[in-house]
Amino acid sequence: MGKNKKHANYIIQGSILAIASIVVRMIGLLYRVPLTNILGNEGNGIYSNAYEIYSILLLISSYSLPLAVSKLVSATIAKKQYQNAYRYFKRAFVFAFVVGLSVGLLTYVCADFFAGTLLKSPLSAYGLRVLAPCIFLVALMGVFRGYFQGLGSTVPTAVSQIIEGIVNAIVSVAAAKILFDIGLKSVEHPEELSVAYGAAGGTLGTTMGALFGLAVLVIIFFMYRRVVKRSLKRDRTGIVDSDRQIYKLLILTIVPVVLSTAVYNISNVLDQGVFNNLMLIQGFTRKEYNSMWGAFSGRYRLLTNVPIAIASALAASTIPSITVARVSGDKKDMMQKIQDSIRFTMVLTIPCAVGLTVLAGPILRLLWSSGNAEAEIMLMVGSISVALYGLSTLTNGILQGIDRMRIPVRNALISLALHLVVLVLLLQVFKTGIYAVVFANIFFAAMMCFLNGSAIRKECGYKQEIKKTFLIPAISSLIMGALSLIVQLACSGLIGDRMATVVALVVAVCSYFVLLIRLGGVNEEELHRFPKGGMLVRMAKKLHLM
Predict the structure, then answer these.
(1) Where residue 263 falls among pLDDT bands split at 50, 70, 90?
(2) CB–CB of 39/176 below 8 Å?
(3) Other C-beta atoms within 10 Å of 75: how many?
């Protein structure tokens, strides 16, 4: 019974984080619609350039701190070393303060070099300077989130993420509009300055969101201090690691996690640098390649990132739970958690990939008043990346959880090198333009899935279940996709294109739910582990599906 409760808690915590991540992504999706309308494709390209540089600097400095801190704290808690767990939190905070402040200052000072020299987008420097303080704020947030997740609670992370997302949305749209109009009134180069100022306004929301998110975490931490003090008194181990031991273990844990995450995600920045430079060589103007990248980042990647958030959330909750199982020597529990997290990810990401493929045009027209031919083709051919990136992100977390920290780094480096070769060939030899980036990203994610899957099988003897994890969700999704497309086409002439898309999406969700259960993809016990699992089980029974 105890094990079942622990297992259920692991699923619940992962579900909380997954729901929060989806909510935040949906907020991001909704505010990017008016932001895109304000900035246009060129402004979106400038915004994206600044954000890509910020993202990689964030990855290098502090993005992986929650995973690293949660892994260390959960390992010490499993040994009932509560004093050490709290000491790891405090020393990690000092580490984050120093590194976050240093990288933030570097970003501000070198903004012109990063934007103008590396990405050939000098107007992005305005937005990059606005984002510089955010690196410091996110570093501090990462330590708080990692500490709470290590203690087994994802609620503080979820609450802070939602507050952060709401503030980000409001400030981004308002600041982008205000600064865009200010740029239009400038005497010299009003067209260029309007999109540059507008993009900088969009990035202001990210910084303000991080500030409010950090404030929420600080408040929750002080509310939680009584619980922390009681846990410190329960420590009977007498083991207190020295500062030198703690910093050494912190660095040995943080560096591989940071490297694997950075190498895994650096492909976005490299893609943009390679794409911009090769397009410039081929004779495209800065405005033209910024517009192409704006369609890619502001529409295609924005939509595909929403379901990928599920895998990121599950990876965050998987690492501490698998670490606890490994430290406790419970291999059966560890294998079960690996299997459940992979199944949960595939059951949710495969239908998302199929839905984005078959309803690419209608979804784009639903969100934006006019469609975009380039973005529509990208979604139709590239939405498979949703499932591939979801699985590769999760398997990175699994390998980190079983303490094979170097393997994701190695796999990402191999995939990245091959990915760049594919990208250059598609751009230079086959002249596929922005679609080269889409195909290269699919290749990268597929390579990561293959290499990580092989490593997990080799390192812990895990055997992947195929039928209920991949086949049934795929069959259910294909039937769902066909039904939703038929409904959309049949209804568009009667109730309008956008309303028909809403109806088609509702049909897609309902039909997939029915098909998944009827084809044996999930049973009652497994459905209980899903977010709102009890409600889903009751609904299935009322419909006589179970």
Answers:
(1) confident
(2) yes
(3) 22
pTM of the model: 0.76
Q: How far apart are alpha carbons 164 and 391 in whole angstroms?
A: 26
Nearest to 528 by CA among 2, 1, 15, 155: 15
Place of tokens 């007498």: 238
Residue with tokens 């490994």: 326
Q: State how far the Cα of 93 lies from the Cα of 103, in Å rounded to an integer.
A: 15
**Which tokens belong to 220?**
């929750």
Residue with tokens 């964030």: 58
pLDDT digits (tens, 9 = 90+) for 427-450: 999 999 999 999 999 999 999 999
In whole angstroms, give the CA distance from residue 526 to residue 91.
39
Q: What is the pLDDT of residue 189?
A: 64
Cα–Cα distance, 513 to 536 (Å, whole number):
9
Q: How far is CA 399 from CA 265, 308, 450, in A?
A: 17, 18, 13
139/131 Cα distance (integer angstroms): 13
**pLDDT on residue 190:** 65
Report the alpha-carbon distance of residue 109 to residue 250 in Å, rounded: 28
Structure tokens at 98: 């120093």
The Cα–Cα gap between 512 and 516 comes to 6
Q: What is the identity of the amino acid at 109?
A: V
Q: What is the DSSP code (8-state) at residue 80?
A: T
Q: Which residues contact 444 (CB under 8 A, 6 or more apart)?
A: 267, 415, 416, 418, 419
What is the 3-class SS of 317-374, one letter each residue? HHHHHHHHHHHHCCHHHHHHHHHHHHHHHHHHHHHHHHHHHHCHHHHHHHHCCCCCHH
| CB contact at 8 A, 66 and 149 | yes
CA 414/CA 403 separation, integer angstroms: 20
Question: How far, in Å, CA of 470 to CA of 461, rounded?
Answer: 20
Identify the band that residue 112 occupies on the pLDDT scale cut at 50, 70 and 90: confident
Angle at 13 between CA 10 and CA 15, to 5 degrees: 105
* d(C-alpha 508, C-alpha 105), whole Å: 48
Residue type, 62: S
Per residue in 13-23, pLDDT (tens digit) is 666 776 777 78
Amino acid at 376: E
Sign of CA dihedral 411, 416, 417, 419: positive
Asked if 326 and 401 count as a contact pair (C-beta separation under 8 A), the reply is yes
C-alpha to C-alpha distance for 98 and 469, rounded to whole angstroms:
43
State the CB neighbour count (10 A cutoff) for residue 346: 22
Q: What is the pLDDT of residues 501-518, one digit of tens each?
A: 999 999 999 999 999 999
- The answer to whether the beta carbons of residues 487 and 494 sit under 8 Å apart is no
| Strands in 397-508 per DSSP E | none
